[in-house]
Amino acid sequence: MSRSSQAITLAITGASGAPYAVRLLECLLQQQQQVHLLMSSAARVVFATELNWQLPAAPKAMGDALREHFKVTAEQLQVYGKEQWFSPVASGSAAPKRMVICPCSTGTLSAIAHGASDTLLERAADVVIKERGQLIVVPREMPLSALHLENMLKLAQLGVTVMPAAPGFYHQPQSVDDLVDFVVARILDHLQLAQKLQPRWGYDQSAAREES
Hints:
Blueprint: E1 7-12, H1 18-30, E2 34-39, H2 41-51, H3 59-70, E3 77-80, E4 98-104, H4 106-113, H5 120-130, E5 134-139, H6 146-157, E6 161-162, H7 176-190, H8 203-211
Parallel strand pairs: 1-2, 1-4, 2-3, 4-5, 5-6
Helix pairs in contact: 1-7, 4-6
C-alpha cells in the first residue's frame, strides 16, 4: 500500500465525544496510517471537560504533545491550525481521499452542508466532497432538530457517510470503553481497516450457537 493511500484526515470538533476521537486516533496510528489532524478550539474545551486533557492551542505545541502521548513521529501525525491554508488538506491535489470528523458538531455539519470554508476543517471536508473521496461524519447531538436532519440528508445525498455516535448493546458491553469501541469499530469498518475491537454481527453469535 502506498503512503498516499494510507493518509487520512481526522477532524475533531466541539461536540461531546472526546473518547471516540482519542480511541479512533489511537487505532489509526497503530495501523500505521498517516494522520492529518484538525482540532477546533471548542474541541480542546471538550477534551479538558471530558478527559481532563489540557492540549496546547498552538498547532506545533499540540502536535508535539500528541506525538509524545502516542509515541509516533512527525511524519505519521501532523497537526494543523484552522488557518493553515498551505497545508495539504486544503488542496484537492494533495489532500487525503479519506476524512473522518469525529465527533462532528451540528455547527460543523451545517457549515459543510452549505459549502462554507471559513476554517481549514471546513475546507478540508469540502475538498474531500468535491474530489469524490470518502467523508465520514460522526454527529453527537440529541434531540435532533429538523435543521440537523436536513443537513444530514443533504450530506448523505452527496455521498457522505453519516454515522451518529449511537453504540449498540447486542455485544453486552461491560464498560464505557466497550461502548466507545463499538462506534470506533464501525468507523474502521467503513474505512476498510482491520479491527478487533468488536466482532461483526453474525460471527461470534454463530460460534455461540454452535457451542450450545
